[in-house]
Amino acid sequence: MNNDSKNSIPIIPVSDVPSRPLNEDNEIFQNSKDGVNMGPSNRNKKSVAVKKLEKRIIRLTAQAITDFGMIEDGDRVMVAMSGGKDSFVLLDALRTLQKRAPIKFDLVAVNVDQHIPNFPREALEQYFKDIDVEYHIEDQDTYSIIQRLIPEGRNVCSLCARLRRGILYRVAGEMKCNKIALGHHMDDIVGTLLLNLFYGGRMKAMPPILRSDDKRNVVIRPLAYVRESETEKFAKIRQYPLTSKGICGAGENLKRQEVKELIKAWDREFPGRIYNLFMSLQRVSPSHLMDKRLYDFHNFVPLLPAASADEGEDE
To answer: Does the pLDDT value for residue 8 go beyond 90?
Structure first.
């Protein structure tokens, strides 16, 4: 992807640490100095703190899109709507940027109805209608497949995610979408890094943008610079029709839950540690590691083989 293209969102300098206030000279914000418009609500009653949070999420989302060339002129972006807080915040942010960006791109909100009991499909569909966004709900009974294949008591998250990913890839092609936007945030990226370090014995996280092995789909993560605490706060303010956690009855992966608790503890005891871990992913020194695929230690020459898309996926 060519970041120098005239048809891409203009490049602006990246701040050293995404947690710091970012420059508002980006063209995306030229007409939004008095705040942003993220859907129906009473702006007059918003507190200063709410406006700052809202504006911050927009800035960080735009910064990530700019830094990694996630969205270009003419793109048709599928926003994968799981029903959780992060996907709602992502859709809100992208809709705002769609109105303000100097380029044109389309958004399609897509949810996969997996026939999980008590899934609030009607509420989700009504929300899409209320905000007037193009949407599609794909009806696929993966819940019964998982119930049949996975013994009771075993974690089903990995299989469920793979099935959903395959469906999203297919639907993206059917709906002529060339980008798939997922709601993963900074905590997810750092959490995946830690999971792979602790349990996989490898240094691997989630890339902000990747191309699938079949070359047909490009996956983007525009919330890469946003913390989970920020999406959580904003979701409470917006009162989205969220899907309840654990609605499938499986609960959360125990290893991932352990890492999430570790991140929370570090945030309390060592502020800044998560940002430093995140920034380390952008400051890699292959000559100071031990991967012979990245560095020729015999000749002291860096080697940069192209990584496959699967290497960027979650555990």
So the answer is: no
Query: Could you tell me the two tokens for 57?
Result: 């999420």
Closest by alpha carbon to 183, among 33, 61, 53, 71? 61
Query: Cα separation of 186 and 180, whole Å?
Result: 18
- Residue 203: which domain range? 27-302
pLDDT by residue (tens digit) across 186-213?
999 999 999 999 999 999 999 999 998 7
Residue 312 lies in a domain: no
Q: Between β-strands 76-80 and 179-181, what pairing exists: parallel, antiparallel or unpaired?
A: parallel
Half-sphere exposure (Cβ direction) of 238: Cα atoms closer than 13 Å: 28
Structure tokens at 1: 């992807």
Q: Which amino acid is at 272?
A: G
Is the whole model's pTM more than 0.85, yes or no?
no
Amino acid at 289: L
CATH number of the domain residue 84 falls in: 3.40.50.620
72 within a domain of the structure (yes/no)? yes
* Terminal CA-CA length for the chain: 26
Residue 108: inside a domain: yes
Q: Is residue 5 part of a domain?
A: no
Work out how many domains the chain is built from and give that number: 1
Return the structure tokens found at 58.
């927009």
Q: Are 311 and 204 in contact (CB under 8 A)?
A: yes
